[in-house]
Write a structure and sequence with these properties.
The complex is a heterodimer. Chain A is of the alpha/beta class. Chain A has helices spanning about 30-35, 80-90, 125-135, 155-160, 180-190, 205-215; strands at about 5-20, 20-25, 40-45, 55-60, 60-65, 70-75, 95-100, 115-120, 140-145, 165-170, 175-180, 195-200, 220-225, 240-245, 250-255, 260, 270, 275. Classes of the chains: A alpha/beta, B alpha/beta. The structure holds flavin-adenine dinucleotide, flavin mononucleotide (FMN) and FE2/S2 (inorganic) cluster. Flavin mononucleotide binds near residues 22, 45, 197, 225 and 253 of chain B.
Chain lengths: ~290, ~325
């Protein structure tokens, strides 16, 4: 079946520390050929009898279609709960079941317009690959990387290699400028004349990036991170309120219609405090006396 | 070679493995992993009359060997379902068990009426009435928690579905006496039963010290609930065998992850088995469970799947 996605019994070939994160390389034949920047993989955790049934989703950091090991996929994992703990404890030759590539990739501009790529924490993981593709199309690429502290920045060295310009911010000032990516973004957009801002990171950051991009005349394309149970579009847990081409807001699955959305289409007004509400004007929203 | 065919109230299926409603969307997504026509039947996400946005998020929490969900029956509504989803399933050659629900008993009837009028109706091998949803006319009490409401819904659905197409009532285990609800549904005309829907639960986020789901409560599913499903099927089939309630086919669902898990439900009397939450762990799970179940049935020396149905009732050690 040519379905754009594969499920493969993968194998870890490398697991190395990268600041506060773990950078894993997995052999996962078939994924690389199909993948584009912005897509993700869903990994099963804990082995075949695991009590943690739900897949964990990770942005694809890079892919290699073939090589000594067959096709590989790299992901950058922040250890957090039981699933990410398990993943970061894997060593070479351990099996990991991989489903991917999933979701919609970052749309690439038809013209070689200048672009700014913004990554928050491990959110920078998918951006280097994107930067290479954009530069191959003749786009000028600036990167803005931000994190709470220096150890939570990912890929600053790689950024300097792949982008035409790099700006770093940290909340505590331990690297680059003290502050948030949104504090410097407007300046970078203006200086580079960017038409598109690509961003990946926490929801709050994506919202600010969208606002700054709007204010400086650029379109924001944001990769969101919603809690996902399946990653493949069958469970309806990962929905977000997003306005469609017809102007109507729908609760759409971020795993299939996202994770990349145009920032100005996301109903940020409904998102906050760890909860995403259903806007009253959304299609099928509960009515008084209804459900 | 084992004969895996199974017959549910006059409808013969090539094998007894199905998806579970709400765990497989309406087929397109899983079809990327295996052809949906290879399943005995494809069970669709519960469809209601109008489009529904569902509940706020977070809608889920992982639990030991399971999960809690509060999707809130999000869906496109019956008209869009008949226009887009059902014809696609028909094109793939899938046999479809359509799950329906309503905010009121009358609304169940309206949904069925529009479904039956669909040009793709011929791929429908049965209708599953999801009576484990809230009855707006009865203070939001779940239909399947009350024998009278259950009866009313089943009656309406049965009269609207053409003769020869079976109606299954899907029951919740969150009741004092599931046999009484099964009895009410069967006496009202249900041709079969699907057991079980999820169990109501709450997970607390221990960082925020508040319920993790935005909707507070959710339905528990996955291998954690399998013993509850096996118990429910055992009790209801036991009552059928004892002659205290009408005899009818049962579709077992709850916590099936492997062929062995499916065999448990079959052994206590399920003539077919649905695979739900396990699909989130392994998108190929429904297809894999079919292969594994066939091997399990063969391992026990049965040549026909149906010979394994209910055997546990005969092999019980009498004390
Ligand atoms: C499209 C996408 C890309 C992502 N990319 C990365 C990445 O590159 N690096 C990285 O470290 N993390 C990434 N995440 C977040 C990562 O998926 C979660 O941190 C991880 O699933 C949490 O698992 P756990 O076992 O640590 O936590 P638990 O809390 O035990 O997870 C329980 C369940 O909730 C889900 N869940 C919990 N938190 C999140 C979350 N923040 N996002 C999505 N699902 C969650 C899990 O998938 C799982 O089903 C991404 C998430 C998405 C949706
Ligand atoms: C995310 C999710 C959504 C569900 N949606 C429905 C639904 O729309 N209609 C329904 O009858 N059951 C629904 N169910 C219940 C399942 O069909 C099944 O009865 C239950 O989950 C137990 O089986 P399992 O342990 O194999 O998942 C849902 C379950 C889950 C986990
Ligand atoms: S994560 Fe299951 S539908 Fe998106």
């Amino acid at each position: 079946m040519s379905s754009g996605v594969v499920q493969v019994a993968g194998e870890v070939i490398a697991n190395r520390r990268a600041g506060a994160y773990h950078h894993l390389t997995l052999v996962a034949p078939g994924v690389a050929e199909l993948a584009h920047p912005g897509q993700f993989v869903a990994l099963a955790v804990g082995g075949p009898t695991s009590a943690n049934l739900l897949r964990r989703c990770f942005s694809i950091h890079k892919v290699k279609p073939s090589g000594t090991y067959g096709g590989t996929v790299d992901v950058v994992v922040a250890a957090h709960g039981p699933g990410t703990q398990w993943l970061t404890e894997r060593s070479a030759h351990d099996p990991v079941d991989v489903v991917g590539p999933l979701g919609r990739p970052f749309p690439l501009p038809a013209e070689p317009v200048p672009c700014v790529l913004v990554g928050g924490g491990y959110g920078s993981a998918p951006l280097f690959w994107l930067a290479e593709e954009l530069r191959a199309r003749g786009c000028h690429v600036e990167m803005v990387l931000g994190a709470a502290s220096e150890d939570r920045l990912f890929g600053v060295v790689e950024a300097r290699r792949t982008a035409d310009g790099v700006t770093v911010t940290t909340d505590d000032g331990s690297a680059g400028r003290r502050g948030w990516v949104s504090d410097v973004l407007g300046e970078v957009v203006d200086r580079s004349g960017a038409g598109v801002v690509y961003a990946c990171g926490p929801m709050g950051m994506l919202r600010s990036v969208t606002e700054v991009a709007d204010a400086h005349g650029a379109v924001a394309q944001v990769a969101v991170e919603e809690s996902m149970a399946c990653g493949i579009g069958v469970c309806m847990t990962c929905v977000m309120p997003v306005r469609g081409n017809d102007g109507e807001t729908r609760m759409v699955r971020s795993c299939v219609e996202g994770p990349v959305f145009r920032g100005d289409r996301v109903r940020w007004d409904a998102i906050g405090g760890g909860i995403t509400r259903v806007p009253d004007d959304a299609v099928g929203a509960p009515r008084a006396g209804g459900h | 070679m084992v004969d895996m065919t199974t017959t549910l109230a006059g409808t013969t299926l090539p094998n007894p493995v199905m998806t579970a409603s709400g765990c497989a969307a309406n087929g397109k997504e899983l079809h990327r992993f295996f052809p949906v026509s290879e399943l005995g039947a494809f069970v669709t996400k519960t469809v209601m009359r109008d489009p529904r946005s569902g509940r706020p998020t977070p809608r889920m929490a992982e639990t030991p060997s399971g999960m809690l969900n509060s999707i809130g029956l999000q869906g496109p509504g019956i008209d869009a379902f008949c226009e887009n989803d059902l014809p696609w399933l028909a094109e793939q050659g899938a046999r479809v068990l359509v799950s329906v629900a309503g905010n009121t008993a009358e609304e169940f009837g309206e949904v069925v009426q529009r479904l039956v009028a669909s040009p793709a109706w011929s791929c429908v091998v049965g209708v599953e009435a999801n009576i484990s949803c809230p009855n707006v006319a009865n203070r939001g009490l779940v239909f399947a928690c009350d024998p009278v409401s259950s009866e009313r819904v089943v009656q309406i659905v049965r009269t609207r579905v053409p003769e020869g197409v079976p109606v299954f009532a899907k029951l919740t285990p969150d009741v004092t006496d599931i046999v009484a609800i099964a009895d009410a549904a069967l006496r009202a005309g249900a041709d079969g039963l699907t057991m079980i829907n999820t169990l109501l639960g709450i997970v607390v986020d221990t960082d925020l010290l508040r319920p993790q789901l935005a909707g507070v409560t959710g339905g528990l599913s996955g291998p954690a609930v399998r013993p509850v499903a096996v118990r429910a099927v055992w009790q209801v089939v036991g009552a059928m065998r004892a002659g205290t309630i009408p005899t009818a086919p049962v579709i077992g669902v709850g916590g099936v992850r492997t062929g062995k898990d499916a065999l448990e439900l079959v052994a206590v009397g399920a003539s077919a088995v649905q695979v739900g939450t396990a699909t989130f762990n392994d998108p190929s799970a429904p297809r894999r469970v079919l292969t594994e179940l066939e091997a399990e049935v063969a391992r026990h020396g049965f040549t026909r799947f149906t010979d394994a149905v209910g055997v546990a009732h005969e092999r019980m050690v009498r004390l």
